[in-house]
Amino acid sequence: MAIVKPVRKAVLPAAGFGTRFLPVTKAIPKELLPIVDVPVIQINVEECVASGIRDLILITSRGKDALIDYFDRGAELEELLERKGKRADLEMIRRLTDLAHISAIRQAEARGLGHAVLCARGLVVDEPFAVLLGDDLVEADPPAIRQLLDVYAKYGKGVVALWEVPSGQEHLYGIVDGESVGGGVFRLHNLVEKPEPGKAPSRLSIVGRYVLPPEIFPILANTKPGQGGEIQLTDALATLCASDGLYGVRLRGERFDAGDRTGYVLAVLRYALRRSDIGAAVRAGAEKLLRKT
After folding, report:
1. Most CB atoms closer than 10 Å: which of 173, 190, 208, 218?
2. Long-range Cβ contact pairs of 259-265 (< 8 A, separation 24 or more)
3. Where are the chain's structural domains?
4. Which option is the CATH number for 9-259: 3.30.565.10, 2.40.70.10, 3.90.550.10, 3.30.70.20?
5. What is the pLDDT of residues 208-231, one digit of tens each?
């Protein structure tokens, strides 16, 4: 049996414009929008670290240097906090720098998610790697990407995260066709992007967590632009599925689509309610507001 290489690196695509959150994303990267007071990108980084991955590659674009600055040292701010004796705040911001080793690559032009992943080829080289999309926040134990890593370690094949979508909405998503091998894991036969109503092979949609072998890179390099003139990761995954095999795992936990306004607000509310410092006050305030509507 072939030895399965450990997954040591993760790619975090963050080059998009975030147009669904205009006008704020005209000046602020959507990945820095806060879930209470912790930005989406930090939650994704912490998920990687909690799953044993500390070598992270950010795929950014022009105007998104704030993402890199966020995880860099801020000498002036640290000196100010030290002078004022704010040790807790000082330790909190220093922790950001020490969370992980973070590299950044610019995606020179918007050519789709598949192209964004391909941009990381030079740093990933010939290793398996994880991909996390910031729009998907998953509150889970074990963390979402850890669930995929466990399946990859068992089968040695690429793994995608799956989420069950409401009946009748399958045509809005990329849906998988596969067979269960137990424990919420599926051996995939095919991926269908937005199937016609009533013709979906399942209700399981691919969501923003992946563990991929390095063989995905030459596939991406040879994938022709699809919808919108972009290189679609889904198209490359379909090729990988046919040539090398692909697995899916139904995520355990609660997922929020933070790339959607409603999903984002619900994520903020959920994370706020779980906070020991503000949870009780937020709950009381929310209940008061609901009584008035």
Report:
1. 208
2. 259/18, 259/20, 259/30, 259/134, 259/135, 259/136, 260/20, 260/135, 261/20, 261/21, 264/21, 264/33
3. 9-259
4. 3.90.550.10
5. 999 999 999 999 999 998 767 889
